[in-house]
């Protein structure tokens, strides 16, 4: 869970600035619902500043709140917690993106033949190599056939691992709901 929480915080930081980080991190660490007062005193911040951060976090779906009416005074108290479903959605989305990239990379590797310059290690497709008469366009060294089996194997293994993760998480998701 640590990785996904870090990712969640990074994303919040990149969208909302580093102001929100301490509030979000505290909520993740405490693992219980907290009021703005509690957050403010834990972080030694003004309640108004905490509220501003909570509102911008909730607008972007990073935190959710539940409100109850305070019986005597009649006002509402909000209890805040991190939006864990959103963490999982973000993670799954991220994984699907990576999976897509790896798959199209593997397809590219599988459907092309490559040549490499042994001097500067630049790699060229068959078309590029052919156009340059199988000499490196940068330094003129004769190009050699590049065996991409290792690359393909590496990509295949990565793809399998991510597919497995996605499948397992999808299964867990259905069990939970
Ligand atoms: Zn070269």
Summarize the structure in words.
The chain is α+β, with helices and mostly antiparallel strands and 177 residues long. It has 2 domains: 2-82, Winged helix-like DNA-binding domain superfamily/Winged helix DNA-binding domain (Arc Repressor Mutant, subunit A, Orthogonal Bundle); 87-176, no CATH class. 61% of the residues lie in helices and 13% in strands. It contains 7 helices and 5 strands, in the order ααααββαββαβα. The strands form 2 sheets. Strands 4-3-5 form a 3-stranded antiparallel beta sheet. Strands 1-2 form a two-stranded antiparallel ribbon. The longest helix is centred in the middle third of the chain and has 28 residues, at 84-111. The chain is elongated. It starts with a helix and ends with a helix. The structure holds zinc ion. Zinc ion (ZN) binds next to loops.
Number of DSSP strands? Answer: 5
Helix content: 55-70%
What gross morphology would you assign? elongated
Poorly predicted tracts of residues: none
Order of strands in the sheet with the most strands? 4-3-5
First-residue to last-residue Cα separation:
19 Å
Count of structural domains: 2
Q: What is the C-alpha radius of gyration, as a whole number of Å? A: 25 Å
Mean pLDDT: 91
Supply the helix-strand structural class: alpha+beta
InterPro entries: TF_E_archaea (IPR016481), TFE (IPR039997), TFIIE/TFIIEa_HTH (IPR017919), TFIIE_asu (IPR002853), TFIIEa/SarR/Rpc3_HTH_dom (IPR024550), WH-like_DNA-bd_sf (IPR036388), WH_DNA-bd_sf (IPR036390)
Organism: Sulfuracidifex tepidarius
Protein name: Transcription factor E
Pfam family, one: TFIIE_alpha
